[in-house]
Amino acid sequence: MIGTVVKGIGGFYFVYDGETVVMGKARGNLKRNKDLIYVGDVVDFDIDENDKDGECVIHRVVERKNYLTRPPVSNLDILVVVFSLVQPDVNYPVIDKLIAGCELAGIDPVICISKADLAGKEAVDKALSVYSSLYPAVSVNAISGEGIGQLRGIIGGKKVALAGPSGVGKSTITNQLHAGEPGIAEAEEALLKAATGRISSKTGRGRHTTRHVEIFPMSDGTMLYDTPGFTSLDMPGMEPIAVRDLFPEFRDLNSICKYSDCMHINEPECAVKDALKNGRIAVSRYESYKSMTEEVKKWQK
Ligand SMILES: Nc1nc2c(ncn2[C@@H]2O[C@H](COP(=O)(O)OP(=O)(O)OP(=O)(O)O)[C@@H](O)[C@H]2O)c(=O)[nH]1
Ligand SMILES: [Mg+2]
Ligand SMILES: [Zn+2]
Predict the structure, then answer these.
(1) What span, in angstroms and rounded, lies between the C-alpha atoms of 94 and 216?
(2) Residues near 252 by Cβ (< 8 Å), separated by ≥ 6?
(3) Does the Cβ of 167 fall within 6 Å of ligand 1?
(4) Could you give the CA distance from residue 33 to residue 182 in angstroms, rounded to a whole number?
(5) Domains of the chain
(6) Hey, whose CA ends up nearest to atom 8 of ligand 1?
(7) ∠88-94-99 over CA atoms, to 5°?
(8) Which of 95, 138, 168, when mutated, tests ligand 1's pocket best, judged by the most ligand atoms within 8 Å of its CB?
(9) Integer Cα distance of 111 and 79 in angstroms
(10) What is the pLDDT of residues 179-229, one digit of tens each?
């Protein structure tokens, strides 16, 4: 059978088959390295009635679409990049780096401006306009629920996680998305409760110290990854020139620049700098790009 790993705890995995969650273990090779199974993995599993430790055995991890190591999750379709304009103030280089990390990992970013009630419509619209030609972009007030419906529409049926700076409202938005959702979580909770004793006796740890990432399947098919919160994605060593490709607004322009390897910084006859001058590229995006290329250069030394 095929299912999705929705939680891993102390060598046990919780597999969701589209209807229920079963607990089980990894077989053979998979078992030797517990890092080999990620939350989000699609796995081949069998129900094992005779196994005293769990209800299912995982045979194989289906090839991943993508994965992140911090937090360790796989197969995300969408990362909702959440940020507020005030409380806390927006930090565009951090946000744009997160978005670039999505581009690199093969995850679709969705831009979510939170705390729309605190910033004023004009500021929110302006921030949305920076992104709306590049990615799906919404603003929300997670206290009143405004904009949550629109966000639901965008992420519906997909495998989704929220990321962004601390305090921007990720947990509040997550709670709104969960509002009115019935029970897989409860069924899973009951399973977990039953399993916790066993797990604790094997690993010496209880549930609170081992909790990291967990997926909540929702009634519309959305799988919401609940992570402890992450603010950046891993950026492996890369050539500065490769940073260009992480900014979709440059893609059509790269070939118009005088030099094919134009970094869009000091070169003459640069289509990106022209677009910047006439406002077709946002200053904040360009500044983020420059700071990312600087960062990548530093790692190379
Ligand atoms: N005014 C206003 N406050 C909000 C909104 N969304 C969240 N808050 C508040 O902002 C604070 C932080 O929200 P959280 O949801 O905990 O933020 P978080 O992103 O999960 O923070 P971390 O878990 O630290 O990463 C809380 O006091 C929320 O009540 C909003 O839309 N408007
Ligand atoms: Mg939180
Ligand atoms: Zn250029």
Answers:
(1) 27
(2) none
(3) yes
(4) 34
(5) 2-63+182-210 (2.40.50.140), 72-178 (3.40.50.300), 240-300 (1.10.40.50)
(6) 169
(7) 120
(8) 168
(9) 9
(10) 877 655 565 565 555 555 444 444 444 333 334 788 988 888 999 998 877
Probe target for ligand 1 pocket from 172, 176, 213, with the most ligand atoms within 8 Å of CB: 172
State whether the beta carbon of 287 lies less than 6 angstroms from ligand 1: no
pLDDT value for 208: 38
Quick one: which ligand is closest to 231's CA?
1
- pLDDT (tens digit per residue) in 78-124: 999 999 999 999 999 999 999 999 999 999 999 999 999 999 999 99
Partners of residue 25 on adjacent β-strands: 57
Q: Which amino acid is at 111?
A: I
pTM beyond 0.90: no
Asked whether 124 lines ligand 1 (CB < 6 A), one says no
CA of 146 to the centre of ligand 1 (A): 14
